[in-house]
Specification:
globular; mainly alpha; N-utilizing Substance Protein B Homolog, Chain A; single chain; 146 residues
């Protein structure tokens, strides 16, 4: 596999974990660089990431949090809210939606990568759910920024 592709995939995983941490941390959770290093420390083997790319995903999420969360909520069934979503599922969707604001990544790659992250954490229906919501949200964001 292409080393640059592997770095970007690892960056997406770390960005998802950092978004999870920042969304649930009290008092802001710290600087992005520190949060990324903390997430990387959890891996026994060295995980190589594209630091600027990872930081860009997280920064984009911080900048567009309200818009992303509103978009997610609009695509949930009437009886669901963000609070009912599994926090890991929500973080994966948030990270994927954040990357949709970055024009350098093609939509199918965004979907594929975040569904793969979903499979890393879940074995049941969650990856399908992530795909359904994320496909709609990424398409909407891409149509608005182009």
């Amino acid at each position: 596999m292409n080393p640059d592709f592997q770095k970007k995939s690892a960056s997406r995983l770390i960005a998802t974990q950092a978004i999870f941490y920042l969304a649930h941390a009290k008092r802001g959770g710290g600087a992005i660089k520190e949060v990324i290093q903390s997430c990387l420390a959890a891996y026994a083997e060295e995980l190589v990431i594209d630091q600027p790319f990872c930081t860009n995903i997280i920064s984009t999420w911080k900048k567009h949090t309200t818009e992303i969360d509103q978009c997610i909520e609009k695509n949930l069934s009437a009886s669901w809210s963000l609070d009912r979503l599994d926090p890991v599922v929500l973080s994966i969707i948030r990270a994927g939606a954040s990357e949709a604001f970055l024009p350098e990544t093609e939509t199918p790659l965004i979907l594929s990568e975040y569904i793969d992250i979903g499979h890393a954490f879940f074995i049941k229906k969650e990856p399908q759910f992530i795909h359904g919501i994320l496909h709609t949200i990424v398409s909407k964001i891409r149509s608005e920024i182009t």
